[in-house]
Structure formats: C-alpha cells, structure tokens
Amino acid sequence: MCDVENVAENVVEKDFNPNSISRYKKREQAFILSFETLFSDTDVEELADNAVDGSDEYMSDYAVFCAKGIIEHSDEIDRYISDNLKKGWKISRISKVSYTVMRLAIFEMLYVEDVPLSVSINEAVELSKKYSLPDDSAFVNGVLGSVAKTIDE
C-alpha cells in the first residue's frame, strides 16, 4: 500500500512529513503514474509501490488518487479532449506525454474542488514543458483553455 508506514524505510529523512511534498511534485507523480498506466496493465497501487521501492521518494496519496481517478473517468475525460481538438485531429495523433498531461489536468478540473481551473492548466503546461517537446506546451494550453470554457458554462 501507499501509506507512510509502508514507505518509511525508503525515506531518507527521519522526520519525514508527506505534507511537505509540494502540490507540483504530487501532480508530477500523478503524471508519471498515469503515463505508466498507458503501457501496463499493472494496478496503480502496485505501480506506486514499485516506484517507491525503486527510489528514496514517498509516493503521495494525491498521485495515486489522481491516477486511479483518471482511469475510472477516462471515457469522460477523453471526450473532453476529443471535443476540444481542432477539426480533423484525433486523440491517437497526440503524443502520449501531452495526452497524459491533459488527462491529469481535466481530471483535476472536474474532480478536485480545491484546485482552480487556471492552476490545473498552468501546471499542465509546466509539466508539458518539462517532459515534452517545446511546441507541445502551447498545444496543451490551447486544448485545456477550450476545455475550461466548456466546464465554466
């Protein structure tokens, strides 16, 4: 499981506090877990445990919550993406990184009440800049901006 007791031996700091992980880092963990699910049938919990076993990092509950939520609501999330792509574009044409970043942002927009839409978009753009090609961040921003308008209506 992904609680503090199970990963305590993997944490370098003696007085580790899981709340000390920034929201950006939790979101980045969620992105990585979600990205892995595209290529594996392994359960999210097991992927999270494997990530902890292979590093000295704590896997946040938020990351697991988001990765599971993206899977659970994938049809709805993917519909938002499809409906907001330019004419002639399909999800299959989008890079897996951009696709995963957008899925995470849309999940937050729909199901995480304490995160403003603009923050979800901004953080997705930052993740895209870090993990994708330079032009992808503008694409992600455009699609998510359109999605946000749809959600606000």
Structure description:
- This protein is an all-alpha fold and 153 residues long.
- The chain contains 8 helices and no strands.
- It has helices at 4-7, 23-37, 44-53, 61-72, 74-83, 96-111, 117-131, 136-152.
- The longest helix is centred in the C-terminal third of the chain and has 17 residues, at 136-152.
Summarize the helices and strands and which ones pair or pack.
Elements: H1 4-7, H2 23-37, H3 44-53, H4 61-72, H5 74-83, H6 96-111, H7 117-131, H8 136-152
CATH architecture group name of the largest domain: Orthogonal Bundle
What does the overall shape look like? Answer: globular
Largest β sheet strand count, sense and barrel closure: none
Overall mean confidence score, pLDDT? 83
End-to-end separation in angstroms reads 39 Å
CATH superfamily of the largest domain: NusB-like
* CATH topology name of the largest domain: N-utilizing Substance Protein B Homolog, Chain A
How many distinct helices?
8
Poorly predicted ranges: 1-16
Q: Give the count of structural domains.
A: 2
Short structural summary:
By secondary structure, the protein is mainly α. The protein has helices at 4-7, 23-37, 44-53, 61-72, 74-83, 96-111, 117-131, 136-152.
Tag the structure with descriptive keywords:
8 helices; disordered N terminus; 153 residues; N-utilizing Substance Protein B Homolog, Chain A; mainly alpha; single chain
